[in-house]
Every structure is written in C-alpha cells, then in structure tokens.
Design brief:
single chain; 657 residues; alpha/beta; seven-stranded parallel beta sheet; six-stranded parallel beta sheet; 18 strands; 44% helix; globular
Length: 657
C-alpha cells in the first residue's frame, strides 16, 4: 500500500468521524497495510477494534474476525453499521434464511467484515464456504485465549494458526487487553509475529481508584451498602456464584437500591433485558458473575465492586477495566478475605480429569478401531462422538474434555473431519400433498420417499436416513439439502440436534503406550499452574507496593510507575487477608461415613471405577457429568467440605481409603 499517514487520518475522519488515531492504533494500521501480522495489546476500552475496522475498509478482500462472545459481535456490528460499513456475522442467532443472505452477500463481495466464533470452524458447511472466499486479514479478538499460559485459555483457539495457513490468509491481527510477558511471546510465536510488530501501549489507567478492603464474610453486606452510598452513577458488583448474585441483588432491592442479578443460569431474554436496562441508565446496579461484562460497551460505569475475590489478576484487570472508559473518575473496590479461595481453587481441581476418565476416552476411540479393522492397528480410521455423551462416559466436564480432544489433535492422534447433526425432525406447515405437487415427478418421488420413511410421532417426523436410502438410494446430504430448502420456503419447520463430531484417527499414534499418562501429566501441570495463579492473586492484594504499579509490571508494561497516588496502598492501607473463621476439616470418621454414603447411594446405579477425585468432588460439592442424574445433593455428606481446601480434602480421603 502506498497510502501515507496523512491519508489514513483523512479516511479515519471520513469513515468514523474521529480526528486522529489513539495511541498505538496508527502503528498497528501501518503494520497491517504494509502486509505484516501484528499483535496489539491495549488497555480495555482504548480502541483495539478500530484497528481492524479501519484496515478492513482499505483491503481488497474479506476481513474474518474470530470473537469469543456473541454480545461482542453484536455490539461491534451495530457500530460498523452505524458508520455505513458492510459487516455481518454467522452465528447461532441467525435463521437459515438470514445465514443464506449473509453467504450470498459475501460471495458477491458486498461484505467487508465477517464475524464468527472459533467453534464455527467445526461446521463442515462453513469450512467449505470460507475456503472458497479470498480473505485479506484474520483478526483474533481476546487473543490471549490461544495461550495455555493465559487466564482464559480456550482449547479451540489453538487451531487458529492452522486455519490461517489452510485458508491462505496473508496477515493476522491479534487483539488483547491482558497479556503477561509469557502470554505475549506465546501468542506472537504461534502466528510468527515479529517482535517489531508487537504494539503495546501503557497499561496504567490514571482515572481508576483501586481499593482492597479486608472484611469478614458477615461484614460484606453492610460494606456493600456503605460503598454504594458513596457512589454516584451506575456500576457492577461481581460475585463468584450464581446463587450469590441472586441473594445479593434481592438484599439490595430490599434496601431500596435499583439492582438486578445477571448470570449464565438465567434465561437469555432475562439477561438481555437486564443488560439493556443497564445500558439505557434505567438500572443502577448489576450483581453479576463473570458472565456479564465482555459485551458491555458503556463508557460511564462509575464503579466496580468485587464482592468475592476475582479468579485471577487477569480477571481483576479485565473487570475493573470496564469502569471509567469515559476518562472520568471511577472507584474499584475488592471486599477481600480468604473464604472464597476454596471455591476458586476447587473449580480448578474439579476440572482436572482423572486418569480413569482419560483412559475411558482413549478406549472409546479404540472401540471404533476394533470395529472397523482390528487387524490394522496402525491404520487410519474414523471415530465419531457427541461431546455430551463422551462427557458422561468419561466423567470429564465439557471444557476440560474439549482441551483433551485438542491435545489429541496436537499430538497427531486426531484430525477433525466434519460435524453433522445426528437427528433431524420436521413438521409440516404446508400439507404434504401440496408440497409434492410443487415438483416434477423425479423430485416428487424422492420427497415422497423422505416423507414416507420418516418416523412420525404426532406432528413431528424424525428423519430415518437408513430407511430412506434402502428404498431410494441417495446421499444423506441430498436429504438434508431438500429439507433445508423446504424449510427456507416455509413449507416445513426443520430442527436438528445431537451435534456429532467426526474425527480421523491415526491408529499408530493412538496406540502409544504412554498416551494416557502423558495427557494426565499435562492436566496435572495445568492444575498446578492455575493454583499458582490464585496464589499470585493473594500476593498481589497483600503487596505493600502500589496496586497500579504492580498491575503494570504484571502485564509487562514498559512504562511502570512507582506509585499512582490513588490506590489503597498509596493511601497507606496495605491489606492483610484472613479467613472469617477458622476452617477445620471434619473428623476422619465423618469423612469415612460420607464416603460410604456416596458409595452406597451409587450401588447398582454406577458401574464405573470409583476414584479419589470422585470422592473429593462429592465432598466439596463439585458437579460430575457421569453422576448428574443420580441426585447426589440429597446424599448426606454432599458439599460438607465445600469450605475446605480441595487439597486438604484430598489428603484426608487418601488417609481413610
């Protein structure tokens, strides 16, 4: 590109109405328009998105944006549309007709920016489509998700470098607000980004008052009221558990405060209404889990209060970063004690798969190998699975299970082939006879076979692909295409479920004798890494050093200040965190009784192997996929050790087994 910096600013004014770029933006723009990949590390709310939004208007082909949250996509699309820039998303909220319209616009070159989630790449139809489109730029939003050293690691992000290569995308832009030195180098290495093309602006936010207040659990509600009385404007209170969000919001409403709860367990329309009210300034306080925030682009949030400890320094930084984006003063306080430490730690331990569970996944894959060609153990073969079913089979929660499958990909055991829905069902909107009369004889015969050999139950018919192909030999894809067409024309209502992933398996790599052990060690290392992250959080809040200076150093800010003058440490209030009350383990005989209750309750209902992890998860109240329907909450002993550290419970159970 020959465009000079002056022209960039003219176009910026013309397209977006801004007189000049913010710090770092123009440098990123220049890297990309000169054909280089770039990594941009800017504080929350400092205009990372504008970098790709501007560049997309200057490049010849499509800009593909991978974003982790639907709300983020919708906000950015609304902004782009307000500026007259053609942009779209392909996501779960679209109807089939809307999706087809987006595809048509992209094929005709009428769309400059397409936003998708990383999971969209698992969809075979999407992959086929996107491979046919020339792409100028890949953008990875919240790019720290790609790093296993990051606080928000998402296993599917690890596959983005290979997607970039297979799609022949010439340049990549990685965007994040939270990257330590290790995460920064990890991200850059995975996308071959040169050090000279990493742009990092100062981390320090000079309008945020940071405050850590040590409290006991019984003091928290009154401290919340006292804090809110000192505030003006709207704000967010973060809690760890959904139940806490409900309880605190109800307490505040009883005190005459305009507050609502927000968490992932609420219906989507309730969440949307709460977010809308907050954005429109008709709601003062949102009491939320971390499910609230990433899609919030509200510049005048005047306070962020942490009712519980955040999960990590990175989470803390992201959450306080939502305050004061308008540059005006905002107050950020943490009500801190060590009580919530167990909850955060226990989630880490609960996400670590047992070796037995890992072996169950490997054995499930091998069962397909034996069925297809047991004599050729080193050959390639197909394996298919549904994530929910595999989670129950292995007793591994879905997020760590996804991580396990990605690790098997990286170890060249698995290679994704495609995904399909195992079950399709439809109901007639237009009468069957009228539909058949719309087509010529050949197509009519085909549709008649589809309708006749579907399994009808009341008004819904389940498609039986085997029956259909036995009387009218045809590809499964033809049946689906025909039904999708009828759905688009509003002749039938079509629904699909049970997403099934199909993998190609390298038999030789699958049969490595140390495979399960290697994966178990990987998860054990991850577990320790996350526990250390929690320890660093406590050290951070108890440090005698300025909170803002500590934050800047943690995120490798080259412009580290010595003291900010507007945090609790600079005010001479160094925090020391304590437990609200002494926490002791129950007596060994009680633990023995509860373990026996657990075993007795599952007698005849669970045929798998009992593991140390299962006992500990029961005692600490952690969910187990394999036992989710067996009413463990009713068993005496469930969650009796929820306030104890998981590692202590683990040792106590070891002692009695």
């Amino acid at each position: 590109m020959t465009t000079n910096p002056k022209d960039y600013r003219q176009q910026l004014k013309q397209l977006f109405g801004f007189d000049d770029f913010r710090q770092g933006q123009e440098q990123v723009v220049r890297h990309l328009l000169e054909g280089h990949s770039s990594l941009a590390i800017f504080p929350t709310g400092s205009g990372k998105s504008l970098c790709y939004q501007f560049v997309a208007t200057q490049l010849p082909n499509l800009t593909l944006v991978v974003s982790p949250l639907l709300a983020l996509m919708k906000d950015q699309l609304a902004f782009l549309h307000s500026k007259g820039i053609a942009a779209a998303s392909i996501d779960s909220s679209l109807t089939e007709q809307e999706r087809q319209q987006v595809v048509k616009q992209i094929k005709q070159g009428q769309c400059k920016i397409l936003m998708v989630s990383v999971e969209r790449f698992k969809n075979e139809r999407f992959r086929q489509f996107i491979q046919s489109i020339p792409i100028s730029l890949l953008v990875v939003d919240e790019a720290h998700c790609i790093s296993e050293w990051g606080h928000n690691f998402r296993p599917d992000y690890l596959k983005l470098p290979s997607y970039q290569q297979s799609l022949n995308i010439p340049r990549t832009l990685l965007l994040t607000a939270t990257a330590t030195a290790k995460v920064k180098q990890d991200m850059a290495k995975r996308f071959a980004i040169a050090q000279s093309h990493i742009v990092q602006t100062g981390f320090y936010r000079n309008n945020l008052n940071l405050d850590v207040l040590p409290v006991t659990e019984s003091q928290k509600h009154q401290q919340v009221l006292r804090f809110l009385q000192e505030q003006s404007g709207a704000g967010i209170i973060y809690v760890t558990l959904q139940q806490s969000a409900e309880q605190l919001a109800e307490f505040l409403k009883q005190q005459g405060i305009n507050a609502r709860a927000y968490h992932a367990g609420l219906d989507s329309d309730v969440r949307a209404a709460t977010q809308h009210a907050f954005m429109q300034n008709s709601l003062d306080v949102v009491v939320a889990t971390i499910a609230f925030g990433m899609g919030i682009d509200k510049s005048d949030i005047r306070f962020v209060l942490h009712f519980d400890l955040p999960k990590s320094i990175e989470n803390y930084s992201q959450e306080i970063g939502r305050a004061g984006r308008d540059g005006q003063w905002a107050n950020c306080r943490v009500l801190a004690n060590l009580d919530g430490l167990m909850t955060v730690e226990n989630f880490v331990y609960a996400d670590t798969p047992d070796l037995v569970g890992i072996e169950a996944v490997i054995n499930n894959i091998k069962s397909y190998q034996n069925n297809q060609n047991p004599s050729l153990a080193s050959q390639s073969f197909q394996w298919e699975t549904q994530l929910n079913t595999l989670s129950v089979l292995s007793n591994i929660r879905q997020l760590p299970l996804k991580t396990l499958l990605v690790q098997l990909e990286l170890m060249k055991v698995l290679e994704p082939s495609y995904s399909y829905f195992a079950e399709f069902k439809y109901r007639f909107i237009t009468p069957e006879a009228e539909i058949l009369n719309l087509f010529n004889q050949q197509r009519r015969d085909f549709l008649k076979a589809v309708f006749t050999h579907s399994d009808m139950k009341k008004v819904w018919a389940k498609v039986n692909f085997d029956k259909i192909s036995s009387v009218y030999p045809s590809e499964r894809s033809r049946v689906i295409s025909a039904l999708e067409y009828l759905h688009e024309q509003n002749h039938i209502q079509l629904e699909s479920r049970l997403l099934t992933d199909v993998w190609q398996v390298n038999g030789e790599n699958l049969n490595r004798t140390d495979l399960a052990k290697h994966l178990s060690e990987y998860f054990a290392q991850n577990e320790q890494k996350e526990i250390l992250r929690i320890q660093h959080l406590i050290e951070f809040f108890e440090s005698p050093r300025c909170l803002n200076a500590n934050l800047a150093e943690h995120f490798d800010d080259p412009q580290v200040l010595e003291s900010c003058g507007h945090c609790s440490v600079c005010a001479g209030k160094v925090a020391k965190l304590h437990y609200s009350a002494a926490v002791t383990l129950p007596e060994p005989d009680k633990i023995q009784m509860w373990v026996n209750n657990f075993r007795n309750h599952l007698a005849g209902k669970y045929t798998g192997e009992f593991t140390l992890g299962m006992y500990c998860r029961f005692l600490t109240g952690m969910a187990m996929p394999a036992l989710s329907r067996l009413k463990l909450r009713q068993v005496d002993g469930y969650a009796e050790c929820a306030m104890n550290r998981y590692a202590d419970v683990q040792q106590a159970v070891k002692n009695i087994l």
